[in-house]
Specification:
- The protein is mainly alpha-helical.
- About 75% of the residues lie in helices and about 0% in strands.
- The chain has one domain: Four Helix Bundle (Hemerythrin (Met), subunit A) (Up-down Bundle).
- Helix 2 runs antiparallel to helix 5, helix 3 packs antiparallel against helix 4 and helix 4 packs antiparallel against helix 5.
- The model has no long low-confidence stretch (mean pLDDT about 90).
Length: about 120
């Protein structure tokens, strides 16, 4: 799997729990609620993304990546956010080789994120 890194080469966290908790003023109940909403809504966003890739419509792929990027940013999902940024960049720079790997990369990153989020909201 492609590892997404910071500018210093350090691997980005899948989910930055502390950052997210700080951004919502330490409200763990809200954290749990937002994560549950993300886990309910994101599979639909993933289906929209995959459909856009299958149709080969770069505008739709970019739009879907933008939507996923925003959802990831909302919960401090650092890797998914960075991957979506990279997808948008690849669309703008017409990088078909990278784009051909995107569905697999997106699924791998989302699977890791889902595991991390479920662990974070475990009672």
């Amino acid at each position: 799997m492609t590892t997404l890194t910071t500018e210093t080469g350090k691997a980005l966290p899948v989910f930055d729990y502390e950052d997210f908790l700080n951004r919502i003023d330490g409200d763990e109940e809200l954290l749990h609620e937002v994560i549950e909403i993300f886990l309910e809504d994101t599979p639909r966003l993933m289906r929209i993304f995959h459909a856009a890739v299958q149709t080969g419509d770069p505008v739709a792929v970019e739009r879907a990546a933008h939507t996923l990027k925003g959802a990831a940013a909302n919960i401090s999902a650092r890797r998914l956010h960075a991957l979506c940024q990279r997808i948008q960049q690849a669309i703008k720079q017409n990088e078909p080789d990278f784009l051909s790997t995107v569905p697999r990369l997106l699924e791998e990153n989302f699977d890791l994120l889902e595991q991390a989020l479920r662990a974070a909201v475990k009672p």
